[in-house]
Structures are given as structure tokens and as C-alpha cells.
Amino acid sequence: MQTKTPRRGTIRLTRRGRIALIATGTVAAVTAVAVPLLLPDDDAGPESLTIPEGWRTSQVYEAVDKALDVPAGTTKKSLPKAHLKLPGDARGNPEGYLFPATYPIDEKSTPASVLSYMVNTAAKKFGGSQVTAGADRNTMNVYQTVTIASMIEAEAGSKADMGKVARVIHNRLEQGMPLQMDSTINYALNRSTLKTRDSDTKINSPYNTYTRMGLPPTPIGNPGEEALRAAINPTPGNWLYFVTVKPGDTRFTANFEEQQKNVAEFNKNQSEKKGEAKQAG
Length: 281
Fold this sequence. Notes:
The chain is mainly alpha-helical. It folds into 2 domains: about 10-30 and about 130-275, no CATH class; about 40-125, no CATH class. The protein has 10 helices and 7 strands. A 3-stranded antiparallel β-sheet has the order 1-2-3, with no helix packed on it. It has a two-stranded antiparallel sheet with strand order 4-5. Helix 6 crosses helix 7 (about 160-175), helix 6 (about 140-155) packs across helix 9 and helix 7 (about 160-175) packs across helix 9 (about 225-230). It is globular, with a radius of gyration of 20 Å.
């Protein structure tokens, strides 16, 4: 869970246990953003475009532009004529509904047709009885559930943690607590690296879940099926905080003091790694 480090504010804990060194501006860890387009040779069969879980619309647009070999920005400009079948809550914004999957690409493909394919796939995945029933059970509509799934996709350190991250989100909403998700701030700032500073948590944005209560106004990426399943079936628990102390060791708790101890252990581990790196250098 996002928590300020007790060490004079020089290191700020980010959502997956990664850190940014604020004093020096050095980023200790980043999220790699790549465009894994699977475009086989002509004799290898139909071409295809793979969209990974969690990608934002901006990344999808860029990938479609490259896959279809059209000028940058063409796919985004095609939205008005794509006539995407989005829910009313989306207000024409396809964020969350460009479903992550591998899509066929051929000489007849256009930006509008590819986007329509993605949205139609999302409609099938999100419109099933299990999803609608799960949304109702959590007193949410489907669009809100997709929004939660997008945060789970961005926040969970592993697929095994998705259900617990979902529970933290639901618990905080039910208790009237701000979500305090760094992932929503990163979305507002249109960045992929995690360099959250205190000043970032004070930005004036509807996506600032530190200062705004409830869910962000839209999804913050395009979630996959596992994140969606976690959103409608969160793991039972009373957790309100979480932090990845070390790889494979994400700890969830309902106790703030325990969370602070976990954060302190995380900081200790990082300090030791930093010391080892200096000795090796």
C-alpha cells in the first residue's frame, strides 16, 4: 500500500515495492513499455497484433498505427468513424474496452475495424452473466467493475495477488477511505515509470485518488480476464494496505502499524541491496 517512508522523505514507496530516489532524482526501477507486435512473415500465415493486459489506449493506438503501417495518430483520429459500441458511462472513451488479446490483421484491416474488433470482444467478455452478477453483488455496475479491474491490473505484483488487491480496493471504498493508488496518478500524468513524489499526490486531477474519494472517472488501462475475475470475486479478507517487501513477498494487512513495519523491512532490504551494488561497483 502506498505509504511514506519514515526516512526523511528521501525515498518514497511505490505500489509494487519499487522505489524512486527523490533526493537525487534517480529512478531505482522502471516499468518497461514495449510494443510486442507479432507480425509473422507473409508465408507464415495471417498477421496478428497482440495487446498485453494493462495497456492504455494510447499504447494500443500506437501499436495499431505500427501494425497497419499508417502515420502516427491515425488510429486515434479514427475514433469518430469507428462507431464503437461502448457503454453509456464511457462517454465515447474506449479506455478499458480495448480488450487485451491477439487480433488478426490483413490487407482489409483499418484502424476503425481493429478498434471495433477489440471493443466487441470486450463487450462479450464483460457482458456475461457472471460479470453482471458479480458487479451487482458488489453494488457496482459493469463499467465501475472494469475500472476496478484496470487498477488491479496496474497494482498487483502478480496474478496470485489480484484477488487480495481487489479486496483492498473494495474494503477502502466500503469504509469511505480514499484509494490512494499511485497507478491512477501515473495515468493522470501520462507516464509509465513510477516516480511518485509528495507533490504528485496533490495534483488537481479527477484521477488523483489521494485527494478524491471513490473510483477514478474511467478505467486507467485495459484489463484482462484474470483482473476482471478478481474484481467481481475479491479474496475474503479485511486488508486495507499492502506492500511488496521483496519479490514474491507481498504483504497485506488491516493494521497501519504493521504496514509501517513492513515498509521499514522493505526499506532495509533496499538499503542492503544499494550497499551491495556500491561494493560491486
